[in-house]
Amino acid sequence: MRAVRSARTAEPDLEEEPLLTLVADNAGIPLRMIHTPVRCWAAYPTEIDAEINMAAVVEQTVEQACGRERDLLRRRDP
Q: Where are the chain's structural domains?
């Protein structure tokens, strides 16, 4: 759903089917596998938006932790 949201932001004038086709092509998955989550998102927008936002927070936290790990393991000359 983050991909659909991102595609809509990037392509605000694109019609529904071309937008979903774009997402399916970019993700490398069948179009039908995009339609089902979109229907779920339409039925439960608050819950799905909360999941999307939480995924973004987790992704950022993991990226920061990986960066700190790289910094700790980087060789330093005395």
A: 2-73
Phi and psi (nearest 5°) for 57?
Answer: -65, -45
The contacts found for 37-45 with CB under 8 angstroms, 24 or more apart, are: 37/1, 37/4, 38/1, 38/4, 41/1, 41/4
Per-residue model confidence (pLDDT) at position 76: 78
> Three-state secondary structure along the chain?
CHHHHHHHHHCCCCCHHHHHHHHHHHHCCCCHHHHHHHHHHHHCHHHHHHHHHHHHHHHHHHHHHHHHHHHHHCCCCC
* pTM over 0.85, yes/no: no
Measured distance CA(78)–CA(72) in Å, rounded:
15
pLDDT digits (tens, 9 = 90+) for 19-41: 999 999 999 999 999 999 999 99
